[in-house]
Amino acid sequence: MVKTSLQIAVLATAAWAGTAHAVVVAQWDFEAAVAPVASTSWTGIAASTGSGSASGVHAGSATWTTPVGNGSTKSASANTWAIGDYWQFNFSTSGYTGLAISFDQTSSGTGPRDFTLAYSTNGISFTNFSNYSLLQNSTPAWTGATYAPAYNLSLSLSGVTALDNQTSVFVRLFNTSSVSASGGTVANGGASRIDNFTVNMTLIPEPGTYALLLAGLAVIGFVARRRVQA
């Protein structure tokens, strides 16, 4: 009986371990992206992996392009940055928990340096999460041939449980100052590009898996108590 009970506990633990691992829920590599003509926005950028939609919004008309990415053929880029202009990514977290974001971003010498990552579940009311500054695209060079880890930013939002298991989550990266990547002032021709925006999350186990795990843990506790009493 003890052997069977322990086997149940092991199976429960194994079932939990088999489901509690991070997966890519959505990703934008921009390889299939087609930039619009000069306008104040670029909308409807489909995810390359998973589902979701990305966009770029500027107060003034900007030139949107798809120059080489960080170790890839394409990225998304725009010039004419003003405070409040942003990149935005919209995706579902239904069935998942523990949001983690990773992306590559850089600016030219006269492109914007300072950004803030904010999140929302309705696309209207946003909460600021983290400020960050971009590395100027110079050394190491951001090229399509070789991936440069120096341009990567990885942020864990796993502590924000309000983003777990949501039909729609919005992540916005918005410009917060007029300081350029070189330390000067942002110019109209100054560009900033983004690539490899990736959403990683952990699958929420099915209710049956939870029940099995709890049953296994209860058995372990019971067996432990019997041994102590013996």
Describe the structure.
- It is built from 2 helices and 13 strands.
- It has 230 residues and is of the alpha+beta class.
- The protein folds into 2 domains: 1-20 and 205-230; 23-204, Jelly Rolls (Sandwich).
- The strands form 2 sheets. Strands 1, 3, 5, 6, 8, 11 and 13 form a 7-stranded antiparallel beta sheet that branches. The chain has a 6-stranded antiparallel beta sheet with strand order 2-4-7-12-9-10, with no helix packed on it.
- α1 (2-19) runs antiparallel to α2 (207-229).
What's the quick description here?
With 230 residues, this protein is of the alpha+beta class. The chain is 18% helix and 38% strand. It contains two helices and 13 strands.
Question: What's the layout of helices and strands?
Answer:
Elements: H1 2-19, E1 22-28, E2 39-46, E3 49-50, E4 53-62, E5 64-65, E6 76-78, E7 86-91, E8 96-107, E9 114-120, E10 127-133, E11 152-156, E12 169-175, E13 192-203, H2 207-229
Antiparallel strand pairs: 1-3, 1-13, 2-4, 4-7, 5-6, 6-13, 7-12, 8-11, 8-13, 9-10, 9-12
E-strand count = 13
Strand content: 35-45%
Report the end-to-end length measured between terminal Cα atoms: 16 Å
Q: What count of domains describes the coordinates?
A: 2
Strand-pairing-aware structural class:
alpha+beta
Low-pLDDT stretches are 1-19, 209-217
Largest sheet: 7 strands, antiparallel
Task: Please tag this protein with its features.
single chain; 230 residues; alpha+beta; Jelly Rolls; 7-stranded antiparallel sheet; 6-stranded antiparallel sheet
